[in-house]
Design brief:
Blueprint lengths: L1 H14 L1 H29 L11 E8 L2 E3 L5 H9 L3 E16 L2 E11 L3 H4 L4 E4 L10 E5 H8 L2 H4 L3 E4 L6 E9 L12 E4 H5 L14 E6 L7 H18 L9 E6 L3 H4 L12 H28 L5 H9 L4 H38 L10 H26 L4 H5 L6 H21 L1
Parallel strand pairs: 4-9, 6-8
Antiparallel strand pairs: 1-2, 1-10, 1-11, 3-4, 3-7, 3-10, 5-8, 6-9, 7-8
Helix pairs in contact: 2-10, 2-12, 10-13, 10-15, 12-13
Length: 438
């Protein structure tokens, strides 16, 4: 039976080339646009999830009067490690922008951080060259990303052991390259080209007041035995505020309320001052997800309209099938099967459209998104969407066409013409309404 349905579907497509072509092109265009949007949404939701144990990594923020900022007094770093049970590690980074001199060349670098020696034990930024255990532990050393090493010295191998000169505010310093980092993933909320040991920052501090100055991004990692529950985080947050309130008594430090934020929320939920560049917005993710669903919905309506408009051409086929004993559910299965087949043919064309459009889409969105057809999860999601589109687009035509009265059809009477026109007009109105909304 399935083989018979497949033959019938292929013959119908061949006999109605224009109808088939319009349906395939319409569904392919809708699927291609939706896949591009879903790839963008997937990328936005993937930020920082490459870090092992990402659900246990958090960042602090502070509210000073009406100002919310992510720069935090550095004293929280050692306080969390020493005084709060359940915290495995805490680290800080401090941004800087300096002129780097390599030989006779100068580079204006805007993506640099001073970092604690345990920074690479919390975050998964692997070293291609160098020793991760000793990285960032020796003053006047520096870690470069692979791209930066190539920019400075021509290759990552040639950069090891070489020196660069940094123009500090007080005095310059010669830094030795002791490690090469793999290029930072595009879906990281932190993007940097150079990492310097925090000791180089400490050597510049002439008035150390670790509870007063808000100059550090502070992160911490929960111990393995501590569950990252709301209650546990609220307890840690309360402890942090209590510790600082006691520490600043009798000093010039301003009061502040400290809050905790999951690492995975930073990219889409950040609204703080002095945050790192390139943050996203969860509202855009929600809006574009809705747009993608609208586009699919419009493509399905197109399919329904064309299918019902062509229903008269298949009326006699339905009548003959019913006459020789075909049940209505068998006809419904046949027509839905045809729409699913068209949907998967459209998917093949849609994937070609996506491949062709991705370079331009990445330029538009400032992304480096790729379509990995070896990603089982991604392919499963695309196939599931296509199956739903086929079912949705073919459901009404299948039930409508299979409901034709045998006697009226074989006599040549157009069955349910009034209802068909009424519904098609309604679908067109709905389609244009969605288009206006978009």
């Amino acid at each position: 039976m399935f083989r018979n349905y497949l033959k019938t579907a292929l013959r119908t497509m061949q006999r109605n080339k224009l109808f088939t072509g319009l349906n395939i092109f319409g569904l392919a265009t809708g699927l291609a646009c939706s896949i591009l949007i879903f790839l963008w949404v997937k990328d936005e939701l993937s930020y920082d999830r490459f870090n092992p144990g990402v659900e246990r990594i958090f960042r602090l923020s502070a509210k000073v009067k009406d100002i919310e900022t992510v720069t935090i007094p550095p004293a929280f770093t050692w306080t969390m490690k020493n005084d709060i049970p359940g915290i495995k590690n805490a680290t800080r980074i401090i941004p800087l922008q300096k002129i780097i001199t390599v030989g006779t060349k100068k580079f204006d670098e805007n993506h640099m951080y001073y970092a604690d020696s345990n920074f690479l034990r919390i975050f998964h930024y692997p070293l291609l060259r160098g020793n991760s255990a000793s990285a960032l532990s020796v003053p006047n050393t520096v870690l470069l990303t692979e791209a930066t090493a190539i920019k400075y010295f021509g290759s990552a191998g040639q950069a090891m052991g070489k020196s660069i000169y940094i123009d500090n505010d007080i005095k310059g310093a010669t830094l030795q390259v002791t490690g090469i980092l793999k290029n930072i993933p595009a879906n990281s909320h932190l993007h940097f080209d150079l990492l310097l040991p925090i000791q180089n920052w400490n050597m510049q501090i002439t008035d150390p007041q670790p509870w007063r100055y808000f100059d550090s991004y502070v992160y911490f990692q929960l111990a393995d035995e501590v569950q990252p529950s709301t209650l546990a985080l609220q307890k840690i947050q309360q402890q942090l505020n209590t510790i600082r309130n006691k520490a600043i008594v009798g000093t010039e430090a301003v009061p502040a309320v400290i809050s905790i934020h999951p690492l995975t929320d930073i990219h889409l939920y950040s609204h703080f001052r002095q945050d790192v560049d390139g943050q996203g917005n969860i509202q855009y993710v929600r809006i574009f997800t809705l747009v993608a669903l609208f586009i699919i919905f419009i493509a399905c309506i197109n399919f329904m309209n064309l299918a019902t408009a062509m229903s008269g051409a298949r009326a006699k086929e339905v009548g003959l099938r019913k006459t020789i004993g075909a049940l209505r559910k068998q006809l419904v299965f046949q027509f839905i099967g045809e729409s699913i087949l068209l949907a998967f043919i459209s998917l093949s064309l849609a994937l070609l459209f996506v491949r062709l459009a991705l370079p331009y889409f990445n330029t538009l969105a400032s992304k480096s998104i790729s379509l990995d057809l070896l990603d089982i999860r991604l392919i499963g999601q695309i196939l599931a969407i296509t199956l739903v589109v086929g079912l949705l687009a073919g459901s009404y035509p299948a039930f409508y066409i299979s409901s034709f009265n045998v006697i009226r059809v074989l006599k040549g009477v157009r069955a349910s013409e009034g209802k068909s026109s009424y519904l098609r007009n309604g679908l067109v109105v709905l389609q244009f309404s969605v288009s206006v909304a978009l």
